[in-house]
Amino acid sequence: MSLPDRFHPAVSAALAAIDVTALRHVFFVACGGSLSIMHPAKFMLDQHGTLPSDVFNAAEFVARAPKRLGPGTLVVLCSMTGTTRETTAAARFAREKGAATIGLTVEPGSPLGNAADHAVKFEAPYTTGVPIDARDSNYSIIYQIVMGLVARSGGEDLTEPLIASLCNLQGVIDRAQESFAPLWDRYAEHFARQDVIYTMASGASYGAAYSFAICVLMEMQWINSQAIHSNEFFHGPFEVLDETRCFVLMKGVDSTRALDERAEEFLHRFGKAENILVLDAQSLDMTGIDARFRGNVAPLIFFDTLWRFIYKVAEFRQQVMLDGRRYMKKLSDY
């Protein structure tokens, strides 16, 4: 079967070159922010396909060396710049074991692009400062890979409604920015004074909570953080909650929403409203997004809109984003 014309041509070419019907396992492999998109990718594959999959940090993937890795397996990797050493090493390791590899990067000629069997370019405004259409983001590309795999492996073919939804996604994000703007004004100055902010989500959105915690709050603003799964919250982490603790809760609209609702109720029961920033995907105008994919696009909306929030926080903290980092992109000997 052929994929829709609006699919990324490199995705279509990669999936055409791989014997998808012979695949028995998929590995999603990356580090940091790139690892965060692997969680919703696995969530989508779990809900729509029958192929088993795992998400791995790139260095641990090589160190653990799963026995099932080899012919008949696909490794999907991502590194924004394509220069992440661990991810490049993971691509080489996977190929040595006989696995097929797809590398997502903004630079197809990068080390990762050269190490993978198939390089797929995506766009990222966070490194260039140039706005993009969300259909060209890493989330969009990996979702195309996942639903292409599902369709080509004999599952339901939802590639047309997926790509139609992704082509409408930027408008949804723009409307979400307007919808969330009052929250940014209400919470930015208060959150800027904090030295600890926890993030929380579940399902497809957990990756967005993970990324915001480690790559934005900790990396960009030196604010201590931890991404907490909305149900794991009740198995230890809720003991830190009091009227002084700050949380960002991302309420998705996928099948795990009830987990987020339970967490929200507890946060407001024992916390203080001014410390609890709730982003609710159900409140957004998702016109143009197929109902079957609204839960999947929610984390991209959260991730994109929270960048607007963190820049307001950074202004109050007088902490420069990106260029203010102490170690990231400043050292090479670690």
Describe this structure in words.
There is one protein chain. With 334 residues, the chain is an alpha/beta fold. It folds into 2 domains: 9-157, Rossmann fold (3-Layer(aba) Sandwich); 165-316, 3-Layer(aba) Sandwich (Rossmann fold), CATH 3.40.50.10490. It has 12 helices and 9 strands. Strand 4, helix 6 and strand 5 (118-121) form a beta-alpha-beta unit. Helix 10 (206-221) packs parallel to helix 12. The model has no long low-confidence stretch (mean pLDDT 96).
Summary?
This protein is an alpha/beta fold and 334 residues long. The chain has 2 domains: 9-157, Glucose-6-phosphate isomerase like protein, domain 1 (Rossmann fold); 165-316, 3-Layer(aba) Sandwich (Rossmann fold), CATH 3.40.50.
CATH class of the largest domain: Alpha Beta
Distance between the termini: 46 Å
Question: What is the rounded Rg?
Answer: 19 Å
How much of the sequence is in beta strands? 5-15%
Report the strand count: 9
Structural class: alpha/beta
* Overall 3D shape: globular
Number of helices: 12
How confident overall, as mean pLDDT? Answer: 96
Helix content: 40-55%
Task: Examine the coordinates and then state which fold CATH places here, giving the name of the CATH topology of the largest domain.
Answer: Rossmann fold
Number of domains: 2
Enumerate the strands of the largest sheet in spatial order, edge to edge or round the barrel: 2-1-3-4-5
> Uncertain segments of ≥5 residues (pLDDT<50)?
none
